[in-house]
Amino acid sequence: LDTTIPTHPRAVDRTTTPQTLHHPLRVTMATDGVNSDPNHGARGGRLCRNFLPSLAKVERGEVSSRQLSRRVVENRSRSLEMDARKVVKTGNAGGVLWLDLDSTEHRYLLTASVHSSVAIYDMQVPSSEGAAFQEHEPVAVDRGNGR
């Protein structure tokens, strides 16, 4: 499903017609993005397939927007469950500010901490493997101080 939406209300060209856009944003909604990889569970893409019919139900008044919002949050939370067998060893003394899994291969985990350190983990190749878990150590670390 392809749709075009305006990037910002000021992007509308008011000299011609209100529908003419300077820079339309092209959006493709085929899968769920995060879990579109078949190796990431059976939930890949289910959110978007169910979202549009649910949105139509809200427009018809069959479901409240609050119920739809709650259902989307619950489904999204379930799809983000971590694999309990994977253990990420971090050297961050402070808190972790940011986690992101690369959107292309769904293989590399990027972390950033409060102490300006950034670490990259390869989530498909464990550094050591126990009977019940896989340990992952950073492939690369930048501590923000040039070392």
UniProtKB/TrEMBL annotation:
Highest taxon of source:
Eukaryota
One GO BP on record is: proteasome-mediated ubiquitin-dependent protein catabolic process
Q: Which GO terms describe its cellular component?
A: Cul4A-RING E3 ubiquitin ligase complex; nucleotide-excision repair complex
User: By what name is this protein known?
Assistant: Uncharacterized protein
InterPro entries assigned: Rad28/ERCC8/Ckn1/ATCSA-1 (IPR042238), WD40/YVTN_repeat-like_dom_sf (IPR015943)
